[in-house]
Write a structure and sequence with these properties.
Blueprint (H helix, E strand, L loop, with lengths): L12 E3 L2 E3 L3 E3 L21 E7 L12 E4 L2 E4 L7 H14 L4 E7 L3 H12 L6 E5 L3 E2 L5 E2 L4 H14 L4 E4 L7 H10 L5 E3 L3 E3 L2 E2 L4 E2 L6 E4 L4 H14 L4 E4 L5 H9 L4 E4 L2 H4 L3 H15 L24
Parallel strand pairs: 3-4, 3-18, 4-7, 7-8, 8-11, 12-17, 17-18
Antiparallel strand pairs: 1-2, 5-6, 6-16, 9-10, 13-16, 14-15
Bound molecules: flavin mononucleotide.
Amino acid sequence: MSRAEAPAVDLGVEIAGLHLPTPLIAASGTFGYGDEYAGVADYGAIGAISAKGLYLNPRDGCPPPRIWETPSGMLNAIGLQEVGIERFLAEKLPSVRALGKVLIANICGSSFEEYGELARRLDDAEGVHGIEVNISCPNVSAGGIEFGCDPDMAARATEVVRRGTRLPVIPKLSPSASDIGGMARRVEDAGADAVSLINTIPAMAVDVETRRPRLANTIGGLSGPAVRPVAVRMVWQAARATRLPVIGMGGIAGAEDAIEFLLAGASAVQIGTMNFVDPGVWRRTRSDLEDYCRRHGVARVRDLTGAMEPFPPAPEVRR
Ligand SMILES: Cc1cc2nc3c(=O)[nH]c(=O)nc-3n(C[C@H](O)[C@H](O)[C@H](O)COP(=O)(O)O)c2cc1C
């Protein structure tokens, strides 16, 4: 059967009341504010865009070097360089809105108040369809501990965002959480509509000749294929622990990786680091995902969510 004759595959998914035409979402911080890849990436293959992280005020980020390539991955310590909410709304949002894509704002806070204020500012922003809450940020008044390491702080950050907006709220869980399932349940109880995971894994590398860290910030976040098995495990645990839709990410480089996350329980996936390597990843992943569904008789991609089969029991050994 030629491709033209093959039955159509329904790639659409629903997440927290949002309809995404494909389950592929551009990951925050790797796709600019949303329109920077125009003319390079196939936007038709992208189901939604999670924009670069926003604090209330502009930030310069960390000094260079900010990036170091590692085996099958990258370390980054950009330090959330960004324009702040005011300029995002006035200067960035109009052109991103014109793309007509589902747009998820990604917010970062140094305090609960900052998360709440950002949610209120985004609530009636035309063209913003959801809020992803990056809780892998240091809580300044708690001595810099990440909100996402502590279930109480993660729940409270979710609550203040929930109170500030009618938009879908999607806490982005940190891989630093020791009990990711428990964390997913806490943010569910605090009013989340979905969860996304994983953010980068805190990591570092040292130049043995100079004896200096590879990054000026010493510690950075590890992403790319190197983190994928960790991410798949965490997505599986989070999906089993909560009724919320789960958005999975970490090292997705093509359809096979995306399907791995879907089978483990994700309803949609994000692609991050791969944008830097091959912006053609979108077209290729959508097309290979469709081919996979046809080969396996899957009419709707959403039927793949959580469809992992248990490992068969070992055959009885006769002695
Ligand atoms: C350069 C860079 C910047 C990032 N910035 C953000 C950010 O602003 N907010 C956020 O929630 N995650 C941010 N992330 C994390 C990614 O969205 C994603 O969770 C992580 O990289 C794992 O996916 P990947 O392996 O496909 O990149 C960033 C990642 C990278 C590599």
